[in-house]
Amino acid sequence: QVQLQESGPGLVKPSQTLSLTCTVSGGSIGSASYYWSWIRQPAGKGLEWIGRIYSSGSTNYNPSLKSRVTISVDTSKNQFSLNLSSVTAADTAVYYCARAIKGEWVRLDYWGQGTLVTVSS
Amino acid sequence: QSVLTQPPSASGTPGQRVTISCSGSSSNIGSNYVYWFQQLPGTAPKLLIYRNNQRPSGVPDRFSGSKSGTSGSLAISGLRSDDEADYYCAAWDDNLSCVVFGGGTKVTVL
Q1: What is the mean pLDDT of residues A5-20?
Q2: Does residue A64 have a pLDDT over 90?
Q3: B47 touches B35 (CB < 8 A)
Q4: Of the four listed, A79, A102, B2, B24, which is most buried by Cβ atoms within 10 Å?
Q5: What pLDDT shows up at residue A8?
Q6: How do strand B9-12 and strand B105-109 relate by DSSP bridges?
């Protein structure tokens, strides 16, 4: 059974960089069959896709966040990471990592439990 | 404002059938599959429907999806109290080159 677990600081100061890591267990992040994604959800609001990465390092980002987002992968640790720079209060949200089926980027079949990140001084 | 449009709420009594719509455009639903996610209170979203009308293993057949033109819909038949949740539609958008979600529909069992 594949499991994903987000980790990282729960509080980030405005203008700083938000950094989160997703650890995958029960499966290899290097598998050719999957993409690895980040999605966020502000309190009481809907879901927003941030971007995704393939094991090769190939990435795609939401154009609304592209200038501030970097997603990277570390296959040796079975982890992938999210960096979001120049954060503001609008970036306060629960951040989820999820697995997507290759060829079906919307087919997010396994999700982490989510981690709340608050942007505040 | 979400790229995909859903009604904010829907409701029904136990045993009833509830349908949730998801309206998009030619660049998303019109040319790609529709997906549906269920988010129970305080939990992560769960894949409910993929490729318009396919159910992952373990999802009851009370849940069904369909697509017509630039709109998709999710039907829940035999409504149960534990179906109370937020439901989100999603699709790939060819113009934006990203995954887009609907704003979500809160289903209440009366």
Answers
A1: 98
A2: yes
A3: yes
A4: B24
A5: 96
A6: parallel
What are B43's two structure tokens?
A: 């939990």
Place of tokens 């039907």: B75
Which of A47, A48, A60, A97 would best serve as a mutation to test chain B binding (most B beta carbons within 10 A)? A47
Q: What is the DSSP string of A5-20?
A: EEES-SEE-TTS-EEE
DSSP, res B83: G
d(Cα A20, Cα B45) in Å, to the nearest integer? 19
Mean pLDDT of chain B: 97
Rg (CA), chain B: 13
Tell whether A80 lies on the interface with B, counting CB pairs under 8 A.
Answer: no
pLDDT in tens, B13-55: 999 999 999 999 999 999 999 999 999 999 999 999 999 999 9
What is residue A47's predicted lDDT score, i.e. its pLDDT?
98
C-alpha A121 chain-centroid distance: 23
Report the C-alpha gap between A27 and A48 in whole angstroms. 25
Query: Which pLDDT score, from 0 to 100, does residue A32 have?
Result: 87
Provide the shortest C-alpha distance from residue B49 to chain A (in Å): 9
- B37–A108 C-beta distance less than 8 A: yes
Cα(B29)–Cα(B20) distance, integer angstroms = 15
Query: Is the pLDDT at B1 greater than 90, yes or no?
Result: no
The alpha carbon of residue A30 is apart from the nearest alpha carbon of chain B, in Å, by: 22
In this structure, what token pair is assigned to residue B95? 């113009």
